Known about the structure:
Elements: H1 3-11, H2 14-35, H3 41-57, H4 60-75, H5 79-124, E1 127-130, H6 133-139, E2 145-148, E3 151-154, E4 157-160, E5 163-166, H7 173-183, E6 187-189, H8 196-208, E7 214-218, H9 221-236, E8 242-244, H10 253-259, E9 263-267, H11 268-278, E10 294-298, H12 300-306, E11 312-317, H13 322-354, H14 359-372, H15 377-383, H16 388-399, H17 401-404, H18 407-411, E12 416-419, E13 424-427, H19 429-435, H20 450-459, H21 464-496, E14 504-507, E15 510-513, H22 531-538, E16 547-553, H23 555-559, E17 564-569, H24 576-583, E18 587-589, E19 599-600, E20 604-606, H25 609-625, E21 630-634, H26 637-649, E22 655-657, H27 665-671, E23 678-682, H28 695-699, E24 703-707, H29 714-721, E25 731-738, H30 742-747, H31 750-758, H32 770-817, H33 821-842, H34 846-857, H35 865-870, H36 873-910, E26 916-922, E27 927-933, H37 934-939, H38 945-975, H39 986-1015, E28 1026-1027, E29 1039-1042
Parallel strand pairs: 6-17, 6-18, 7-9, 7-10, 8-9, 10-17, 19-25, 20-25, 21-23, 21-24, 22-23, 24-25
Antiparallel strand pairs: 1-3, 2-3, 4-5, 11-16, 11-29, 12-13, 14-15, 26-27, 26-28
Amino acid sequence: MSIFTSFTKIFGNKYKKDIKKITPIIEKIHKEFDSLQDISNDELRNKTKEFILQIQDSYKDEQKKIKELKSEIDRIKDIVKQRDLYGKIEKIELEIKDKRENKLNEILPQAFAVVKETCKRFSDNKLEVSATDFDKNLATKKDNVQIKGEKAIYNNTWIVAGSETKWNMVHYDVQLIGGVVLHQGKIAEMQTGEGKTLSATLPAYLNALTKKGVHIVTVNDYLAKRDAEWMAPVFEFHNLSVDCIDHYTPNSDERKKAYNADITYGTNNEFGFDYLRDNMAIKKQDLVQRPHSFAVVDEVDSVLIDDARTPLIISGPVKSNDKTLFTNLKPVIEKLVLAQKTYVSTVLQDAKKLIQENEKDAGFNLLRAYRGLPKNKSLIKFLSEEGVKIILQKTENFYLQEKGKNMPLVDKELFFTIDEKNNSIELTDKGIELISQNNDDSNFFILPDVGLEIAKIEKSEENEKTKETQKEKLLNDFSIKSERIHAINQLLKAHTLFEKDVEYVVMDNKVKIVDEQTGRIMEGRRYSDGLHQAIEAKENVKIESATQTLATITLQNYFRMYDKLSGMTGTAETEAEEFWEIYKLECISIPTNVPVVRKDKEDLVYKTKKDKYKAIIEEIQKLKKEGRPVLVGTTSVEVSELLSKMLTMQSIKHNVLNAKRHQQEADIVAQAGYKSSITIATNMAGRGTDIKLSDEVKASGGLAILGTERHDSRRVDRQLRGRAGRQGDPGSSQFYVCLEDNLMRLFGSERIAKVMDRLGLKEGEVIQHSMVTKSIERAQRKVEENNFGIRKRLLEYDDVMNAQREHVYKKRKNALFGEEMEIELDNLLYGSTENIVNENLSSSNYESFKLDCIRHLATQTNISEEDFLKNDAQKSTEAILKEVKKNYEVKSEIISKQVFPLIKNVFENESAKYKNIIVPFFDGKKTIQVVANLEDVYNSNGANMTKYIETNVFLSFIDLFWKEHLRALDDLRQSVQGAVYEQKDPLLIYKFESFELFKGMLNVINKEITSFLLKAKLPVTNTKIEQQKSNVKENQNIQTSRQSFIQDNKNTNEKKKKPQFAPIKKEKKINRNEPCPCGSGKKYKKCCGLN
Length: 1091
């Protein structure tokens, strides 16, 4: 007996303990379910109304307090008291959330029993109830609901994904357990075919009773639309509204209505993009989302792990010459790659000749070929031969010693070197010499040493004007060459590391990325930092324009905004650590309703791909004769197409499901369980759709799973295995592996290669043993740990931005809704005034102080020079602030009087025609078109015009400088990576520098808004009040995308302005007990000082 088994026997298994805690709740649900058997349909439906009233009554006293506090805020003018009252409201709202959750836990057994009883009655027959207005409205839209007199009839047959479906499902205990886990804000790990979609109806119904909205998140729009249609009648019978956001266009009234439904289905991308769009809106009517309350994420591992590798980005067009640059440099790169291929072929031939005579020299040549072109087919095949891979590994280990001190000897004759594991490429001196041959400028592809050159200019005897001109020319030359070299590196990556039909496909004259985990095309997603444009140039398709980031968020930070988050999947256990560390989501493994009888066989390991594919085809033919359906899982489009050709040559009928045939997914998966059917699919294709088997197929042995390669992640392999063995069905799974596979080649254990060599295995022979399977799984763990590190690092960078994002978005929200605007304006005026006082007091410059007051505050100060220099900053700030506020009040009254006659004329003559109007305001430099409600301004005699000016000015300047700040952060993130060469942590530098950038941005925003508000006036001539065009959508040129992080996790694909000076500078010494400069509010020793 193992130590683990003994430990489990004494202390118990975690998952058994989890289920044991939930069992009493399941017993209560059964008891409540039994009590509902004899009540009428109307009484069953009235239970929902009772639940809603109970929930609302649980916090009605707190709601009353909030109402009183808001009335008090409206009455008082004291900013300090207002701030305190808003703080009290926030505390009470937290109390309401706690009380609401406690009440939900209390009524859970009754609510779950109601849903189960509803499903049971639907499975028996159609349901007849007294008609409500909700029923009558629903009957006009859906065929399954009919109104006859005062009765509403809910049929138990309705359309799902274009097919008529009869309801036949009732929750069993496993699904009830899953529902409880989901309501508790945890992850329910339920195997394929266990009814996760039905399980989600339980917490969705319960939490929808709060009327705060429930989001059910899926991995694709097919599942979102299907599940919404499939489950909707269960909720609609109880007069709870259901909708799917993927039916409607962004920013539309229909999508807003979908979010206002009690239960909203949609894809993870659309939920995230709608959040970003809402935070770019300029009118509160344009907002579509409500506050994030509760979400259930289907296939949670795919959404929160796989898709979390890349952020959601909304971008806009930016002027760029990138397209020309990539096109012009393409011939140069093709010449360079051809030269490298020719040289590597020669080196590889030399290695083959030397392998028996001189192992050391052979290893050197092998390493050189591997560093030159690691994906060379001849090299990969040669490495699968006996003992060759071990020689390469020994040689590589030798040259990596002492931080790779001797590696330049290997790279000397190469034109460029490739680090495949890190997806990076570096030009060598020989490569630079080759591409510079036909160029007059020998330094055309060499970056100047800016520091050295500037020092030379400073030491020269030229006059200052000439020096400045020379410096400007130098920096301009540096910027141009940086772009050129960057484009070359991206083109090299495109030609050597990114393969068509593996990492991407070309469809409709566009390069489309294939998701490595799911095999699906990632519509709208582009590789970052110009790489996508390089691939477009390589494939001779249209090169899309560069874009600039306008708004961005990672999925991790989006989903962490929900008050309560839960998820369900069949493959979460291997990523349990990441779920807990990033999302604080606990994984609960739920037993199957019927024991799994699928046979999972040990891996078959071959030497070459040729042998492996031959064995797979033979196995397919054998299984087909037995009458068993076969699902062949592949890791890429290329492999699925290759196997398809091989089967076609054998005249074997089959279906192929990959990124190129994604639209046929539902039909192909539906046929995958037919007798003797052969289906080739990427490993995670068809997620969310069960493969159902006939009795004849079950008798012949069930579905056979053949994996053509082990994936980098064990979770993906488990997903493929899980396609067979649904609900106790028979089945089998078998993985075919070879030493040429990417996982084995990059991370495979040396032990497997040694074992195969010792056994003297020839081509075509196979090895199968549990030790080999475990060794492969260890390699997968290495990759999983590496990927977790990448995602965690991405999140650490985004956490820095997220704190800034939340601050900016809160300011926008306050401006849009007019909430706390008086406090915001007071803070803004105080901050701008304080900055002016501090900046000039530190330099004792009274004249500059007076000038700044006029320039930025539009105020002629009464403070004398003597008082300014003698008083402390606080006293001077308060004195000037008093004058500024007084001036602002006077200016607001003047604007009201000026604008009212114009408003009055429009309202009295054309009010039927206009609802919202645009009024231009000018501060002497800039004009802002202020959108205002015509009737509101008219009824207030022009007084409310100030409110609209403040809102529009706040939003205009915040959006302008936030966009530029995002660009600066992108550049900063790229440039700080060089800190590792100074033995510094790039993340720590990023925190310090980004905080300084953010502080600077806020200061600029405060100054600009203050200046405009205090100077704003109607243009003297030709002031026109125009109608706002309601049919024109804002942000119509923006694009949504999921950008891929290939190297250093960069997150822009626009042409970047290279920073002229490195942002890495000598840090100021910070005392351990001082506040941390990253803005966390903690002491330095408890925050960044830990690093």
